[in-house]
Amino acid sequence: MRRYLSARSRLTLLYTSLFTLGGTALVVLTYLLVAHTLHSTAAPAIPRAIQPAIGKCVVAAQTRGGAGALSQCAAIYANGVKAGASAQRSTALTHLLTYSLLTLAGVTLLAAAAGWIAAGRILRPVHRLTAAARAASEQNLSQRIALQGPRDELRELADTFDSMLERLDRAFTSQRQFIANASHELRTPLTVMRTAVDVVLAKPEPTREELVSMAAEVRQAVDHSERLIEALLVLARNDQARALTDPLDLAAVAEDALEGRSANGVTTITELGEAPVTGDGVLLERLIANLLDNAERYNIADGTVSISTSTDNGVSLVRVVNTGQVVPPDQVDRLFLPFTRLDDRTRHDGFGLGLALVSSIATVHNGTVHATAVSTGGLDVAVRLPRRG
């Protein structure tokens, strides 16, 4: 089995190698500079081995005299000076190289130890990140690194990891809540069907009218389940990436959503201006249809629903305002959670998914949804989508 060096060992090796290369370059450069300096500088010292010869030559020159003896002495002196300079240069360079290499070896060992310690301190956040990743699971995503210190690359990595854990924690919590709510909602029509069947089967000889009534109740519960499952599938599909490249106009999409709708005792007011967007026509029509359904379902008798499309500050806007019961302002945001119905919105023929689907579809189209409680009753819901250029 092949074994690899740890990151700490590799960092230490890298620091030591770089230091050794730099130290070696420094030693070589120093050696060359000193060698050049000693080569160009005359040394005054004369080797001792030549000093007796020079002394004899001087005595002979003084005794005998003559230019020949003086020339011979001068040559011996020059050779002595040259030999002394060469010996002194060789000794100095040898000492310089020896001491430099010994110093480089010692300092390299110290650099390796310092690099090992520094690498450990630098990689400490990575170890904490690894421990947090190992401790994280679908059931426990509360582990955080919470790294302190200067905002460098490792601090940024740790903060990014903490943000990812926080998003995953919210996503899993929302998923668990969604599954629980969906199970509850799906159980309701099943309970209705079971009750209707049990009541009829408990009778010895059920009449035709009772069987027809039971079948009607079961059919109604089945239709309810089918609509709920369809809404859940749309909500699930919205979380997947999709190509939204169709050029559309929210005014035309709104007209398609309004076509064929019954009044149901509610007056619809339209003001459809040009609002170009890029997206999925089916989903955007579902978005507007859900807004209209929600506005009609939670309206009052002889109420009104106003829908308008327009452009504003580089975005395309679709806005639906309805009359209805007074909604507490602090409860408006809850309406966008799946399976959420407020107590004063007493008609429960919906699933509590209408505005959740609206928010999901808007998010897929890189848009936003904002709802405001109308002081006289009802909601003002505005969806802003990027305008097509």
Walkthrough of the structure:
By secondary structure, the protein is an alpha+beta fold. Helix content is about 60%, strand content about 10%. The protein contains eight helices and seven strands, in the order H-H-H-H-H-E-H-E-E-H-E-E-H-E-E. It has helices at about 5-40, 50-65, 65-135, 155-200, 210-235, 250-260, 280-295, 355-365, and strands at about 245-250, 265-270, 275-280, 305-310, 315-320, 370-375, 380-385. The strands form two sheets. A five-stranded mixed sheet has the order 2-4-5-7-6, with helices on one face. A two-stranded antiparallel ribbon has the order 1-3. Strand 4 and strand 5 (about 315-320) form a beta hairpin. Helix 6 crosses helix 7 (about 280-295). The longest helix is centred in the first third of the chain and has 69 residues, at about 65-135. The radius of gyration is 45 Å and the shape is elongated.
How big is the Rg?
Answer: 45 Å
Largest sheet: 5 strands, mixed
Strand order of the largest sheet: 2-4-5-7-6
Number of contiguous helices:
8
Order of helices and strands: HHHHHEHEEHEEHEE
What overall geometry do the principal axes of the alpha carbons give?
Answer: elongated
Helix-residue proportion: 55-70%
Low-pLDDT ranges:
344-348
Give the CA-CA distance, first to last residue. 58 Å
Structural class: alpha+beta
